[in-house]
Amino acid sequence: MAIVSAAEQFHVSAVSPSYWRVTFDNGPVNLLDPDTVDQLAELIDTIENEPELTVVVFRSDKPGYFMAHWDFRSDNNRVAGMRPGPTGLHPYLDNFVRLSRLPAATISQIRGRTRGAGSEFVLATDIRFASERAILGQFEVGVDAVPGGGPMARLGRLVGRGRALEILLGGDDIPAELAAAYGYVNRIVPDAEIEDFTDRFARRIAAFDKVAVAGIKKLVDVATLPPDDELAAGLRAYFATAGRPQRRPFVELLFSNGLQRPDGIEADLGTAIGELRQKGAVTA
Amino acid sequence: MAIVSAAEQFHVSAVSPSYWRVTFDNGPVNLLDPDTVDQLAELIDTIENEPELTVVVFRSDKPGYFMAHWDFRSDNNRVAGMRPGPTGLHPYLDNFVRLSRLPAATISQIRGRTRGAGSEFVLATDIRFASERAILGQFEVGVDAVPGGGPMARLGRLVGRGRALEILLGGDDIPAELAAAYGYVNRIVPDAEIEDFTDRFARRIAAFDKVAVAGIKKLVDVATLPPDDELAAGLRAYFATAGRPQRRPFVELLFSNGLQRPDGIEADLGTAIGELRQKGAVTA
Amino acid sequence: MAIVSAAEQFHVSAVSPSYWRVTFDNGPVNLLDPDTVDQLAELIDTIENEPELTVVVFRSDKPGYFMAHWDFRSDNNRVAGMRPGPTGLHPYLDNFVRLSRLPAATISQIRGRTRGAGSEFVLATDIRFASERAILGQFEVGVDAVPGGGPMARLGRLVGRGRALEILLGGDDIPAELAAAYGYVNRIVPDAEIEDFTDRFARRIAAFDKVAVAGIKKLVDVATLPPDDELAAGLRAYFATAGRPQRRPFVELLFSNGLQRPDGIEADLGTAIGELRQKGAVTA
After folding, report:
1. Which helix (H) or strand (E) holds C124?
2. Strands B2-6 and A174-175: what pairing?
3. Identity of the residue in C209, C223, C225 whose CB atom sits nearest the CB atom of B226
4. pLDDT tens digits, residue range B116-135?
5. From C203, which residue of chain B is nearest by alpha-carbon distance?
6. For residue A3, what are the β-bridge partners?
7. Closest residue of A to C152, CA-based?
């Protein structure tokens, strides 16, 4: 495999001109941060302009983590000051919208935790294969925020109103088996087999005609993608809620419990947030 | 727990200012009737105006029944003469529309039968947890009626066209396991554990920020709720079909088989209606 | 049972005025071809005008096959020259649109393979019961085509974006169990029981009031059917892609492997196409 790019966070290996594997790598738990936003925008630009590229697999080599979530220590001013992407949306959303509309199939191979922004990322890809070690979730409600990357719009359409509300209002960890039962992921593949399974599936698509793949996606997009302004309303709700000073003490409590470290509260973050909130020691 | 209100049919217990439990109680099988409509409207008014209320659990203590269905002995003139609710819709629908749009999470904990209007009620709540004893269904087709409280609109979006049509055109009983496989309920929780499970889930949400909960719901609403006029068309179809004199003899046959009594045909009402119709003794 | 019609491909048996069983029969693997289009249009005309007909079951007696797929040896000029049906759409689509909107319930009883056009047919019926011997799929991507009969629009709404894209971009065989888990079919019924099961279900509906059945369908249609122009765009994409000369050599390779014969590549057609494409012997 040729290494096409060795950007800091997205390691791209071209298995062939029609099939790329992208390994995400950002710290011990794979946080998403402002650099992720910039680098993902570049990666999407590149994918959009690869004439033969038909399928892209996103994966992680980080034990236990696909993409933990957004980095709570990020520079908010930098994020607020980012210029809109090609869709006219803030680049955090612009990335996800363009990711969904790529003229190539995108597959998330999920063998660990992917919550918050990580869940929003996998929801923006086309297909989600998960091993029994995957844990998904949108815990934002537990830190006083409306999620910003579109899960109300996407989960509402993907898993139906009842299960979307359970996931989003409960904010709890969703283990792989429940995620598959709910349709949050396509299906579970045993962890020992998922690399081969995903690779075989990707090689099928890589052998197909890109015009057919892109043509099919375009019509599924019409049937299933939320309108951009619905997503934009979600990001506005995120900035309005996540920016409130009231939540800072609770986030500091999470850091004192090991937030963003592989051996701390991250293991069962969704569940733990609900328990800490009920103790009420710190008002979020 | 403080008893907030002891209205005839909806017994409200405030576990805390952010968490209420509402127990429905109307006769031996928990029928819905014109009084239910009036009292539910009042309850929804109250919930809308409780500034801290973040989660409401609906439940039943009636063995075998959550909400059986609409009372066939109701005063139809009273129902026809009811004044529109705040949405401009007939209060039967207005209740369900406002229930779905409450700025608090609503959970139906279903341990028994909930059919017809009872199914419409749980579909208007956000989240449905069912025990293995739950039985759902929309048997209206079996008594010559189009269901009036929105299940075409809601089930069509929740479980997909194929399963919605099976439920609505077959009119059969849908046991808990099938309901969970179809997404009619979120999931099954063992009957011995469901009170604790629902309570733990509700306590999580009760500890969260109401602004975040309400903000999330508002955006899931955009993605998943049917437009009001689609629901209004359903209620018009109900009045047009259920009001036909042709169905009266069959309803009387059902009463002679124990309709609206806990020990009669109610046990397997959906299935039984289909069997009686095929005997053809009485034209509905 | 009275034989209402013995058209070449659709054998109609009237179990009663309200219940018809239609057995599809076209060659050893039940291909769909231009004659199928003409005869299905006639059948739908007939069903539309039967005042008492309330439920129609579609089935096959062909071992291993419900409807294999579109006949690759069809006269394309004849297809291109077909006059629009009553909806203004090409009759291939017009049939499926009118099938979905019939004022009677339609059920596909699937005990064998139904791929491509066969999958599009069952997706246009209301309810899909499958035995463990059923295999579904949309392999068109593997022969360089966008499927033309609406599966992007229908599967996108039925099983959600992720699973629809897996089915449509992977082009692989979807065995019954996975199809049921994804909601592609309503549920699995053991092969030894499915004739009885479907018959019992159909007899229930046949005993119900047609006004109620048609009224329910009309409102589920509003909630779940794609707009006609979305389907029309799909058929245009099919003609634009399937008409390219580039795919002819690969189709000939499939014929040399037994395409359209019961003992050849048809057994695992979806899987086999992916494997042959990867061998790359012949560019599709």
Report:
1. helix C117-124
2. unpaired
3. C223
4. 999 999 999 999 999 999 99
5. B278
6. A13
7. A220
